Amino acid sequence: MLKPKLVLFDIGGVLIDYTAWFQTASRDLDIPIDLIKESFKKYKREITICDITPQQMFANCIADNNLAVDDQYDFTKSWVRDYKKIQSSYELFINLSKTYQVGFLSNIYKGLVPMMLNERLLPNVPNSINFHSCDIGLKKPEIEMYEYVQDKTGYSKNEIFFIDDQKQNLAPVQSLCWQMYNFEFEKVAENVYDLTRRLL
Fold first, then answer.
1. Are 115 and 80 in contact (CB under 8 A)?
2. Bridge-partner residues for 102, per DSSP?
3. Counting CB atoms within 10 angstroms of each CB, which of 26, 30, 107, 112 has the fewest?
4. C-alpha–C-alpha distance, residues 77 and 130, integer Å
5. Which runs of consecutive H residues, i.e. helices, occur in 9-51?
6. Closest by alpha carbon to 112, among 21, 187, 6?
7. Residue 173: its pLDDT value, please?
């Protein structure tokens, strides 16, 4: 395998276990978690490209469902509290940064990444190249997102290695000839071992 120059990680499902999402807000406010999940589904595109913030999505959830809850509740902070670091992936990111340029390529929501970095849920590597949908107004798996990455980095074709847990997010990179890896959340240890063997 030709060694890449840039290794990009998705966040959710690769570096972060998000399976407990919205549990904190549901518990704190005593509201059904399904209502929050339904609001996320309804406003998914808007929140992903930052037409609205997580806090605005929460306000919409309150309004849409006529909920009698504190509209000043810090929903963004509660969302981050539901995330857990995937330790072995975190360590892989750090180890790869000693050999490659690394970064994030993620559909993510405004304000979450700074909090996750502050809480050390995500690795904070100097000179990393990070692409967040909420910052650039593009999202995976739209081909424009990957073309934007390629244009901004100056890397092309097999110089970029992309790790994602969603097959639909990997499909477009085939046309760009990126290297890629389908990370399986249920097989973290095996995947990290395999990536270590391939890249280090």
1. yes
2. 7
3. 30
4. 21
5. 23-29, 33-42, 44-48
6. 21
7. 93
pTM above 0.90, yes or no: yes
> Tell me, what amino acid is at 116?
M
How far apart (Å, rounded) are the C-alpha atoms in residues 197 and 192? 9
| Dist CA 69 CA 29 (whole Å) | 7
User: Using CA atoms, how far apart are residues 93 and 122, in angstroms rounded to an integer?
Assistant: 9
pLDDT, average across residues 29-53: 98
CA dist 28 → 79, 81, 158 (Å): 12, 12, 47
How many Å apart are CA 196 and CA 200, to the nearest integer? 5
* C-alpha radius of gyration, the chain, whole number: 17
Query: Hey, what are 105's tokens?
Result: 């390529």
Residues 6+ apart with CB under 8 A from 165: 10, 12, 13, 14, 182, 183, 184, 185
Residue 141 backbone dihedrals phi, psi, to 5 degrees? -100, 30
> Quick count: other Cβ atoms within 10 Å of Cβ 65?
14
> Residue 172: is its pLDDT beyond 80?
yes
- 122-171 pLDDT, tens digit per residue, is 999 999 999 999 999 999 999 999 999 999 999 988 999 999 999 999 99
